[in-house]
Write a structure and sequence with these properties.
Helix content: 55-70%
Radius of gyration: 26 Å
Number of strands: 6
Order of helices and strands: HHHEEHHEHEEHE
Low-confidence stretches: none
Mean pLDDT: 77
Strand order of the largest sheet: 4-5-3-6
Largest sheet: 4 strands, antiparallel
Length: 223
């Protein structure tokens, strides 16, 4: 148990695991995510230690049965931890990428625990590069990521819905659904547009353009 070579080998694995956790944590923090350096370092190093324990128990035959079940238990436990990072904000869901990175940190940690240094290096480099490249790809080809609701209230029901939809679309906003609500007692008409809005969409300019409609009394956007 106190073999110097074994201790040095474990130290190298744990150090490499720290580096993986730190790099993945920096990537998450650069996107202002709640999952950061400390969380991913803890996950990566803990997974490495459990993998070392699993391999050590298998090699020394300390217990009867299958000691590799420790690794299976780690994978199950990390699934619950990752689920805790997924949150719903209005009509949008955030945290899926962070949950996946938690899973990746655990996998890298377990792989380091059994000494797969080259494989871990390849996967880590590939993950960091792909996360950056795919982010740019998504911004370019799938800009309408945020789901919002446009609320328009008119003092009269004599409006041209087609022109309103045209103005919204000209602002680069994609309409996915529309609901109409008429309040007879208040003599108002409410339009609710469910839209997909690009990050760079200029909501202020759209508001100014729709303000030209004389009967428009209120404009609001919610998520």
């Amino acid at each position: 148990m106190f073999d110097i070579d074994f201790i040095v080998s474990c130290s190298i694995k744990i150090a490499a695991s720290c580096v993986c956790g730190i790099l993945l944590g920096i990537e998450r923090k650069s996107h202002s995510q709640v999952v950061g350096l400390r969380t991913l370092v803890l996950i990566s190093v803990s997974s490495t230690l459990l993998s070392i324990l699993s391999v050590y128990m298998a090699e020394t035959q300390m217990v009867a049965g299958d000691p590799t079940r420790i690794a299976a238990g780690v994978a199950s436990g990390i699934g619950f931890l990752g689920g805790g990072t997924i949150i719903r904000q209005g009509l949008n869901i955030k945290g899926l990428t962070s949950a996946a990175i938690i899973w990746a940190a655990s996998a890298l940690g377990m792989a380091l625990g059994v000494g797969l240094y080259a494989q871990v290096a390849i996967v880590l480099i590939a993950l960091l590069i792909l996360l950056k490249l795919l982010e740019k790809f998504e911004w370019l080809w799938f800009p309408s990521e945020r789901i919002k609701t446009l609320h328009l209230i008119f003092s009269d029901d004599d409006i041209n819905i087609t022109e309103i939809e045209k103005s919204i679309k000209e602002g680069g906003i994609h309409i996915t659904d529309m609901n109409i609500e008429s309040v007879y007692a208040e003599h108002v008409l409410k339009l609710h547009f469910l839209v997909r809005s690009p990050r760079e969409a200029d909501i202020i300019s759209l508001s100014k353009k729709l303000r030209e409609i004389p009967t428009l009394v209120e404009f609001s956007v919610t998520e």
